[in-house]
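Note to self: the last two entries modelled the partners one at a time, which told us nothing about the interface. This time every component goes in together.
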Amino acid sequence: MDGAVDLSPRRLDILVDETGDEDSDSAWSEATCGGRLTIDLGAIVRNYRALTPRASGARVAAVVKADAYGLGAGRVAPMLAAAGCDTFFVAQVQEGIALRRDLPMSRILVLNGAAPGAEAACLVHRLEPVLNGWSAFEAWSRATRIAGFRGPCAIQFDTGMARFGFGFALADAGRLAARIARTDHMTVGLVMSHLACADTPEDPTNPAQRDAMTALRPIFPAAAFSLAASSGIFLGQSYHLDLVRPGAALYGVAPVPGEANPMCPVVRLESQVVQVRTVPGGAGIGYGHAARAPGPMRLATLAVGYADGLPRSLSGRGSAWLDGLRLPVVGRVSMDSIVVDVSRAPEGAVAHGDFLDLIGPANGIDGVGREAGTIGYEVLTSLGRRYVRRYLA
Ligand SMILES: *Cc1c(COP(=O)(O)O)cnc(C)c1O
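The predicted structure of the combined assembly is written out below.
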């Protein structure tokens, strides 16, 4: 058979020996995917430890919703538990059920609460739904009574975000406190609220929400109070209350936009070079010829695209990096690839199979968010499933 390729097992063994590092599964698998994502678990723990003294004595919980902002709750949460974190927040009951397998002992709260019918799942998996309103409260009260469960519940008040929680008029709060006192099986363990404008320190909404929480204190004297997420921790001691709930700062996102980031970087994303080519001036580049070469240009095609969570808004705006050298994205982000201008890189410095940084020391999560016209949170939680993931301890 003319031109047929010999793919017999014996011949493939020889190929693996010649092209791959047979001793290293990871080297082999990294060559088979478009990007590699390195997640520094040690940096997450350092960030957790760095937030503790900033919280002026408040307990520091960890928010691990959305799979720990895309970084892998099953890896992140046990590390934080080993570092002393005993309280975890997820958004959804299903996330709590998955997390319970990794955290047999920790307290797990569900920010969105339990939908009608999900109360039993919460009880079975020892999840605490945050009770955001009367109907959720009554359903939880009934489910816990039937199950013979006695214990604390978590209540959220809407102190000014119009998203989750009981109205914070003191009369409503008093009515709720009286209602709970009439049950013989429930107490209030946590009273929480969420800041709408914490990333804008001078916004007067911040002190207004804090003062609303302070006014609720005497109504729930035995409860722990919680208001601050990552940015709120940096608003100062009066926002810390008893428990703070950082998410983003643990994962290296800057808690105060526009200021130097005190958190350790956690994520590095590198993309593999598929091809390097030189095009003549006038060449149309990528879909729609959204870019045209102004003169001869050396281009590298990288094997990640919007299917990997790279925002399409990086078209013509994003960057890859060769150490500190910026390699601008040219033309549109495709589903599985982008094209970057490597004309300024030394000849031969970018070659087929090399990895270039997309998120890294030269440009972190927040920088990529800015380029994409979004925030670091969205870049993180969009990180795709096709990357080879490496966890550093
Ligand atoms: C997501 C979330 C947090 C964590 O917010 P970060 O800004 O990521 O620290 C805390 N509390 C609530 C209610 C949230 O929804």
